[in-house]
Design brief:
- It is a single chain.
- The protein has 347 residues and is an alpha/beta fold.
- The chain contains 15 helices and nine strands.
- It is globular, with a radius of gyration of 23 Å.
- The termini are far apart.
Length: 347
């Protein structure tokens, strides 16, 4: 009788423990706002029983919130969409370094933070290229097939670009600085300012449309903005994309600049084990397809391919040469880049 009672108690405890596990919640602060991510989270919950409680904001807002909340923050996982902001979160001590053989084996070194004795602070899960868009009727492709040519006198008065201080440009400029050194990078930035058709304003889509309207002839854009226009059914968007050409710069040298969307475990995470498990899930082939396709990007995990018609249209169905410098180094250059921008008057 006693044995039966103990057995019943054990089974009841196991049942309660199972229920608690099923009710486990992972608090996610995310700068990603894509409908396909819902399937990503649902599949993770289905596989693990861990529910996702998501808070949406932009990169800057998430970092500011983490600072304000301090040790009281409920955040377990952070998803950001820029290498410079991931680096800033690391430098500001907002992430908890982790050690995971799964992540280290899946994500190439250039797409993650530089490891320390405590582990790695963040990992990139998808990439986007920073490409050049040009007016095919007025500009020769060979005049814009490198980033360096954006500062060439032949392109004077032709360029539209968003604010130099926007994270996407800070990362591009940080990459160029890593390739050519500070002195040459500053001269290059000064040359771009000289070549502007108008003061920097708007987002990347606005730059593409400015090329289409004739306001300028050359622009710089993240590849996913172009992919969205290519996938659009709007007659205006179709006409726009027929007028403009797309170049993946520096194919004969260091390759096209890539930026990343990535994730980290929050410094004060209460559910570290589940948080690491979620990041490991994002490196799986299934999740990489949801994660990358959600914003028309390329996966970072080794051996994972995504079939996306818009991305294939941009690259002509083939691969392109991407730069291989560590994005952690790109992020580390952002302060000196901002100082250069101030000196050359790049708004």
């Amino acid at each position: 009788m006693i044995k039966k009672t103990l057995l019943a108690a054990t089974l009841a405890l196991a049942s309660v423990s199972s229920a608690i596990a099923q009710e486990q919640v992972l608090n996610l602060y995310s700068a990603r706002h894509y409908s396909t991510d819902e399937a990503l989270y649902a599949n993770f919950t289905k596989a693990t029983g861990i529910k996702i409680n998501r808070v949406d904001a932009d990169d800057a807002g998430i970092l500011a919130r983490l600072k304000a909340e301090g040790s009281a923050s409920p955040a377990d996982v952070i998803l950001l969409v820029d290498a410079a902001r991931l680096h800033k979160g690391e430098v500001d001590g907002l992430f908890k370094p982790v050690k995971s053989a799964t992540l280290e084996n899946a994500i190439p070194p250039q797409y993650r933070a530089k490891p320390t004795a405590d582990g790695t602070s963040w990992f990139g899960f998808s990439t986007r290229a920073r490409v050049v868009v040009y007016d095919k009727a007025k500009v020769k492709r060979e005049d814009v097939d490198t980033y360096e040519e954006l500062a060439d006198a032949k392109n004077k008065g032709k360029i539209c670009i968003r604010s130099g201080s926007h994270p996407y440009n800070l990362s591009l400029f940080g990459a160029v600085t890593e390739h050519v050194g500070e002195q040459r990078a500053e001269a290059w930035l000064k040359g771009i300012v000289t070549n502007l058709a108008r003061d920097p304003k708007g987002g990347d889509t606005d730059q593409i449309k400015a090329v289409g309207s004739g306001e300028c002839q050359i622009a710089v854009s993240n590849s996913y903005y172009i992919a969205r226009l290519l996938r659009s059914n709007s007659p205006e968007d179709k006409a726009l994309m027929e007028r403009v050409g797309i170049v993946f710069p520096n194919q004969q040298s260091w390759g096209t600049h890539l930026n990343i969307a990535g994730g980290a475990v929050a410094r004060h995470a209460k559910n570290t084990t589940a948080a690491v498990r979620f990041l490991e899930y994002l490196a799986s082939a299934e999740a990489q397809n949801y994660f990358a396709n959600g914003n028309n990007e390329w996966p970072t995990a080794k051996g994972v391919k995504v079939t996306n018609p818009a991305l294939q249209a941009m690259t002509g169905g083939g691969d392109f040469k991407a730069e291989t410098i560590p994005l952690a180094a790109v992020g580390a250059n952002q302060v000196k880049v901002q100082q250069m921008l101030d000196r050359v008057g790049f708004k």
